Amino acid sequence: MSLYRAFALEDAIVFAKSIPGFFPADAVLTCEEIGDGNLNLVFRVVNPQQNKSLIIKQALPYAKVVGESWPLSLDRARIEREALEIQYRLCPQLVPAIYGGDNELAITVMEDLSGYTIMRQGLIDGNIYDNFAEHIGHFIATTLFYTSDLGMNQQDKKLQSARFINPDLCKITEDLIFEDPYRDAENNNFTEDIRSEAEKLWQDQALHLEVALLREKFLTHGEALLHGDLHTGSIFVTSDSTKVIDPEFAYYGPMGFDIGAVIANLLLNYAAQPGWSSNHDILRERRAWLLSTISSVWNHFEQNFRNLWNTYGVDSMSKTPGYQDLYIEKILKDAIGFAGCKVIRRIVGLSHVADIDTIENELHRRQAKVTALEIGKRLVKQGRTAASIAQVIEWTEAAAKEGASV
Q1: E-strand stretches of 173-257
Q2: Could you read off the pLDDT of 18-75 as tens digits, one per residue?
Q3: Strand 52-59 and strand 62-63: pairing?
Q4: pTM for the model
Q5: Taking the alpha carbons of 316, 322, 325, 328 in that order, is the dihedral positive or negative?
Q6: CATH 3.30.200.20 domain extents, the chain
Q7: Which residues make beta-bridge pairs with 147?
Q8: CA dihedral 217, 187, 80, 226 (to 10 degrees)
Q9: Superfamily of domain 9-111 in the CATH hierarchy
Q10: N or C: which end of the chain has fewer CB within 10 A?
């Protein structure tokens, strides 16, 4: 019989006291529930006397946005914790420390990042993070390389991939990103002022073909252990530090998916900027930084990935001249296509982004949605032709002009 129960504040305090050596036995702890996501409870437990704290994250057996009619496996908490442990081992400076957990209670206990800002909110506030591209490029390259056939023993990789079979959360991705936006699906969620734009998605067979090809890659290409949901709401930042959290969607999939997710969320903020920046000089500056950061994310990824491959690659056949270039070209094309899919789903799909939805001016909010859809469609349709990350910048700027005229 399962011991699972959804925690209340007092349960979180009791569990926190069970973490060996973290809090004194006689500590008087305080607790608050700080989660705002759809799938989990998140508690912050504090010892005010020590000014010391930790986070307890508990998976719920359903998606809060829908309710108990959308059940989810609690094993995703184990998957998330084990993914974090792997990522922390590979990039300790970029991942929160893990202090413990419990599989039956679906709990992970980790470092408190309250001194950080959720990157999505930081971008909405107009902040610039000059170290972000270097940090996230290093994180993606390192975690993907060392969990792939390029960087680990192939038989060990097969065994590891079996630990990260994640059907429930992959099903969410498969439906919400690669299917629902392209049909009149019950789970779609968009305002009536963009209904005509949504209906264009449903009728665009050329777009559907590219999405089908990307969906096939997501379903079948188990290249490396992905974070699986690497958006700006899953990244904590300061001016000089970056921490990646929430890999509960982790599974073995195509490398370009994680890179595409980062690019997509920078593009969504790009599309939203006219709603946040009334000053034209500030608007140009912020948009230029976002596009420059997209290029830098890819360039840092590529540089790190090639260096790891050349120095630590374990597959002798992968050293065949020309193979590395083709492999990285494939990742780039995949990343661009996946980025487009991610942008589109955040406008017409079930779950949106605050970058756009919290714009107060109705006309600016609609324009941001239309611009984002134009960017997303262009990336999906043209991703397979990409030769460099510079083309993403060109296509984005062209799509933004087209979207502004709609």
Answers
A1: 224-226, 235-237, 242-244, 251-253
A2: 999 999 999 999 999 998 767 899 999 999 999 999 999 999 998 766 666 678 899 9
A3: unpaired
A4: 0.95
A5: negative
A6: 9-111
A7: none
A8: 20
A9: Phosphorylase Kinase; domain 1 (3.30.200.20)
A10: N
